[in-house]
């Protein structure tokens, strides 16, 4: 369940009225209704200016709602910033500090959760605007189509696992014959960590992400050194199999 899209300025205006009715002596210092963050800080500081339990209950609940609204919107806008960063060729490793996580995979997973929030907001917003019988029918049809798409995704994930697991295993098996640069070693470590327990869709997505990242870093090494990524025949064949799998998409 989500708060979704609300007229936050109108809610702040209602809270302003409560403070005016209570003859709050500092009301002139309250930021404009459109300045949501500043208004909420004012309302927090001057909460005790309200008179009566009912006014305080109403104000407190509205503040909780508005903070939740800010939290939801923050995910949406931060996800857009992440997309811009990625389009500017910033690696996941370059996003770990600003996302307050320790590893590139954690940054990726955090961004994935934000993307889900953004998608949920878009879906909820559309349904909130249109409530006609036709719109409800359309929403039901979309839900059915989404369920069918999810089944197709699950089937594809199963197929990908059959293909992906042995390729990832070969990379780990022959990693001693691959370049041991920091980035390459990091992603091979991630593959090795998730591979033994790769059963769920999320784990499969993580494994595929790590294989792609390892291939990307090995390609960079090839271009930089003008040498093959593998120093042994088995390692080079393992790398070639990973390249072929990634190229299928």
The global form is elongated
Give the % helix.
Answer: over 70%
Alpha-carbon Rg, integer: 26 Å
Class inferred from helices and paired strands: mainly alpha
User: Which H/E pattern describes the elements?
Assistant: HHHHHHHH
Number of strands: 0
Helix segment count?
Answer: 8
User: Termini distance?
Assistant: 34 Å
Q: What's the main sheet like?
A: none
Portion in beta strands: under 5%
Low-confidence stretches: 125-132
The tally of structural domains comes to 2
Average pLDDT number = 83
What does this structure look like?
With 249 residues, this protein is mainly α. It folds into two domains: 8-129, no CATH class; 143-247, no CATH class. It contains eight helices and no strands. The protein has helices at residues 8-21, 36-45, 53-87, 104-129, 133-173, 182-194, 201-225, 233-247. The chain is elongated. Mean pLDDT is 83; it is low at 125-132.
